[in-house]
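Batch job 17 of 40 flagged for manual review because the log was empty.
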Amino acid sequence: MSIIRNIPILRKLIDTGYAILLIIVISALVGLILAFPVMWLWNFVFGSLYRINVFQAWMLNILASILFGQRNASK
């Protein structure tokens, strides 16, 4: 680890990598937490036809955000 302390560019690169990894992990956890209400609502409405699990609800959230996400129109 003394090599990292002596090379500031390498240290900054590793710190940036840790920050990006932390953002990805937190985003995934928040996405999974927000998938639970979608799963419960889907299973309540369509439970007799088809039940989904939390990962399918998570993917449904991602698909809905791609299809219906907010678009900024610049003038």
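Reviewer: the log was empty due to a logging misconfiguration, but the result itself is present. The helical segments are 2-6, 8-46, 54-68. Unflagging and moving on to job 18.
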